[in-house]
Every structure is written in C-alpha cells, then in structure tokens.
C-alpha cells in the first residue's frame, strides 16, 4: 500500500491538469501545513515566527510548470521580490529556487540570464541562494550551470542527492569549488539504473557523503528529519572536532517541529525550508510521497 501511494502521489505531482485544479481550489486538504501561503507577505510572516524561537529559514517561491520565456522571467522576478522582502523585513532567511522555474527546459541561456539577475540582487543584499536539485534528467546540466556561476558568484550553493550512484564523485569534483552543499536523500522517483532502490543503501550513502563533504572542509547543510542521520552527524562532528559554525541542520516547514526546536536548544543552527506560492501542488505531492504519516494527516483534515 505504501509503495502504491508513493507512486500515485509522485505521478500526480507531475500532472499539469492536477496542478491547474490545485491552483483553482487553493491550499486545502492539509497543504497549508507544509506550504507557508500563496503570497510573499504570508511567507515572511512564517519566517518571522521561526526566527522568534531561534530558527532561520530559506524561502522558496514554488513553481515547476513553466512553459514560456515570459513565465520564466515572471518566476525570476518573484525570486528578486522575495530577496527584497527578506531585506526590507529584517527576517533571517536566504533563498532556494528550482532552475526549471527559471526556464531551464526552454533554454540554458534564458535560465543563466535569470540566475545572474537573482544572484546579483542577492549579493546586493548580502544574501545567499541555494539551487534545488531536481530529477535525474536535470542533474548534470544543473551541476554544469552551478560550476559556471561559481566563477562569478560566491553566494550560491546547490543540493546533492544521496540516492544517486554518482553522488560521491560529484562531491569530490565540487570540492575544488569550495561548494556549499545541502545533502539530502532525494525525493524523486528514479530508475534503479541511476539510483539506489533500497532505503538502507540511501541512508548509508548519505552518511558517507556527510563525512566526505565535512572532511573536505566545506560548509555542509544536512537536510534530514531522520533521527538516526541527525545523531550520526552530531557524533561525527564531535569526534572530528568540527565547529557548529561549519554546518547546519535543515528541515521542511511543518515537519518535525519539536525536533527542530530541540536542536536549536542544543545550540545547533537549524534552517527551515519554507515554500510559498500558487504553484504548490508538485511540492505537496512529493511531501506526501515521502512520508506515509503525511498522508494520514491530510486524510484526517479532509474528514474534519
């Protein structure tokens, strides 16, 4: 049943018609737990509340269904407005984005132009931008673009997914750039030809790449809600004498709130990934696919 539900939600997340219906009916059926709202103001308010108890954030204006240059530029403009809102409000947050929302599937040149605009504005505000990794089809081009951008900007990082076989080699290559990486398990449905099909293998690889990237001396964002991964990281940095200034834990908005607050109380830096926007459906479906507990939460809301 769990596998069937996961496959169903992953398929729905890629459906254009389902996305259109979601835009029409808004953040219902429990999505508001995982998405901070549809407007910049709502997202800034959510970040301010996180900041009040010591958590920092990364804001993401959701958008994965971009089919024209105009839509891609509008998405880039929303990223710039988000950076401006962070600066003017005084909240502590940086920005995450998906390059497909900036026109990557339309043309690389369009995406690069939008990325340069965003990173230039972020640099003006002394802020940082994280490129989210998407499915395997976009992996190499995303890394290529990141490498090109790092020649011009030092305020940009990227995400690396532990479920891909290629990950250790990618991290070693990125070491030469002094890359600031967010390390995750991975949330897309991928072929066993390119990704570990078994959870244990993914978990083991995540532990390996946490060690690898930290030993390379580069800033590391460990993005996981798994207590075993978090405990592993805490034990590893203690043994290696790695300062708490050289890494952070990252978690998703609305998930494991108690654990987030506990880590803050223990003196760790905790950054919460805060998504917002009208194009929330694909993100929401991946959250349901990741954790069966999320499905039951939504079902309970539907019957209230």
Can you walk through the features of this model?
Its cofactor is FAD. This is proline dehydrogenase. With 304 residues, the protein is an alpha/beta fold. It contains 12 helices and 8 strands. It has helices at 2-13, 16-25, 40-52, 69-89, 108-124, 139-150, 167-175, 199-215, 227-240, 257-265, 281-290, 292-303, and strands spanning 56-61, 93-97, 129-131, 156-161, 181-184, 220-223, 247-252, 270-276. Strands 1-2-3-4-5-6-7-8 form an 8-stranded parallel β-barrel, surrounded by 7 helices. Strand 2, helix 5 (108-124) and strand 3 form a beta-alpha-beta unit. Helix 1 (2-13) runs antiparallel to helix 11, helix 4 runs parallel beside helix 5 and helix 7 packs parallel to helix 8. The radius of gyration is 18 Å and the shape is globular. It starts with a helix and ends with a helix. The model has no long low-confidence stretch (mean pLDDT 88).
Write a compact overview of the structure shown.
The chain has 304 residues and is of the alpha/beta class. 51% of the residues lie in helices and 13% in strands.
Describe the secondary-structure layout.
Blueprint: H1 2-13, H2 16-25, H3 40-52, E1 56-61, H4 69-89, E2 93-97, H5 108-124, E3 129-131, H6 139-150, E4 156-161, H7 167-175, E5 181-184, H8 199-215, E6 220-223, H9 227-240, E7 247-252, H10 257-265, E8 270-276, H11 281-290, H12 292-303
Parallel strand pairs: 1-2, 1-8, 2-3, 3-4, 4-5, 5-6, 6-7, 7-8
Helix pairs in contact: 1-11, 4-5, 7-8, 8-9, 11-12
